[in-house]
Amino acid sequence: MRRTVLPFLLVFLVFGIFTLAGLLCTMSSWAAGREVYAAWDTLARAFHEIQARYVDPVDERSLAHAALKGVAESLDPHSRFFDPEEWQAIQEADSAAFEGVGVRVEPDPAGLRVVEVVPGSPAEGGGIQVEDRIVAVDGRALAGLPPEVARAAIAGPRGQAVVLRVRRETTESDVSLVRDRIHEPAAWADLLPGGHGYVALVHFQEGSAAEFDAAIERLTARNAAPLRGLVLDLRDNPGGLLDEAIRVVDRFVGDVAIVETRGRDERENALERGALAPTDLDLPLVVLVNAGSASASEIVAGSLQALGRAVLVGTPTWGKGSVQTLWTFEDGSALKVTVARYFLPNGRPIDHRTGLVPDVLVPSEEARRFEALLGELTRRVETTEGLDAADRARVLLALEHAAERDPDRVHRSVLGVAVADRIPADPALARAIAWLDAPAGR
Fold first, then answer.
1. Cβ(207)–Cβ(172) under 8 Å?
2. CA distance linking residue 214 with residue 202, whole number of Å
């Protein structure tokens, strides 16, 4: 009898354990699902109330697109939703990536701020200058538009006319230009005293690594001997193609990990390695960076720093160490979402809050003057007698926000100037050259 009862009890116990576990899992899934459905229910009810009771009629598609914009922008600075009109403009700009008016721009409250005018471009011929604000394109105001959409409005097919509304200081004027094919070299190079080389890489598009190699060859030929050291200038390099950036890093390292991509989806995971080659550059290396160094340029600088292969000089970088994937929808809209992050050889990500911190912090002369001016203004506001407390607080807050603006920019128009002539006004460059000339201090 016992032989029969004991197995029965064991089977019953095991069955009971699995039943209880299944019940717990079911309850947990139900609770989680309930939270999800509750969130969707809140969204649907809010959507319904706005449609039914908002003072003016609301287009359903516009309302849905606005909600998606808010969702994407709440994730991180690099996720974004594009409505059909915005996405079409971006696609048209990408199809004519090397055709336009020849300006490089950055977001500005008024629209776009010109940070570079390509020599020989329609923009240069039309009198566009660095620090001009482009506030409208063909009569369409740019203020408040996503940066990608505002930039796309300027680009267009070769031979097509465009009218830019340009603000310079306190005056505005319309500038009519005809778009053309624009060629912007990736690499600018010069030979430094003492047999050192200087190469500025301004982007990582197709062929950038080959242009870097060609620049090294030209400098070596001018020096009539292998270079003794190199300054690699990545300031204001917004990035571009990861493969091109990896090829540049590979010129300085052997068979080691360069960068790793990690995401929640295993398909996003990848490890990029270098390869030992006879053409590898075994020489002292300084990399110049600033807040305009982003994405692929941060991978180059960060990998070389993490591997102990280069010294970083300048100011902290932008902090764009993530990968975005794009989905397009039937209504012509598109969603760009961060799906993975880059990790450097030391296992650290590129933090979007701090960027890469240089080994040697050297702000530009412009940034130093800006900081000194803000400090003086802050001191005066704090010590001025008779100033209302609320007014004082508002002014101090405005100065604090002004301090967040980074004036540490290197206009590419100076890249065609001999490095020797630029050193007095470029303390980071001077520090990099001094580091190469002083091996005992390394």
1. no
2. 15
For residue 117, give Cα distances in angstroms to 199, 256, 403.
20, 39, 26
Domain boundaries, the chain: 96-181, 187-326+340-362, 366-403
pTM of the prediction?
0.71
Domain 187-326+340-362 classification at class level: alpha beta
Amino acid letter for position 17: I
Digit-coded pLDDT (tens) for 148-196: 889 889 988 889 999 999 999 999 999 999 999 887 788 999 999 889 9
Helix 84-95 vs helix 147-154: crossing angle, to nearest 10: 50
**Helix, strand or coil for residue 152?**
helix
Distance CA 344, CA 354 (A): 15
CATH homologous superfamily for the domain 96-181:
PDZ domain (2.30.42.10)
Between residues 247 and 438, which one has the greater pLDDT? 247
The amino acid sitting at 127 is G
| C-alpha dist (Å) from residue 115 to 62, 128, 129, 407 | 34, 11, 8, 11
Query: Cα–Cα distance between 280 and 278 in angstroms, integer?
Result: 6
Q: What is the DSSP track for 212-228? A: HHHHHHHHHHHHTS--S
Amino acid at 22: G
pLDDT, the chain, mean: 84
Spell out the alpha helix ranges (H) of 141-207: 147-154
Percent of the chain with pLDDT over 90: 51
Q: Which long-range contacts (CB under 8 A, 24 or more apart) does 97-100 make?
A: 97/155, 98/181, 98/182, 98/183, 99/155, 99/156, 99/157, 99/158, 99/179, 99/180, 99/181, 99/182, 100/154, 100/155, 100/156, 100/179, 100/180, 100/182
- CA nearest to 183, candidates 137, 139, 120: 120
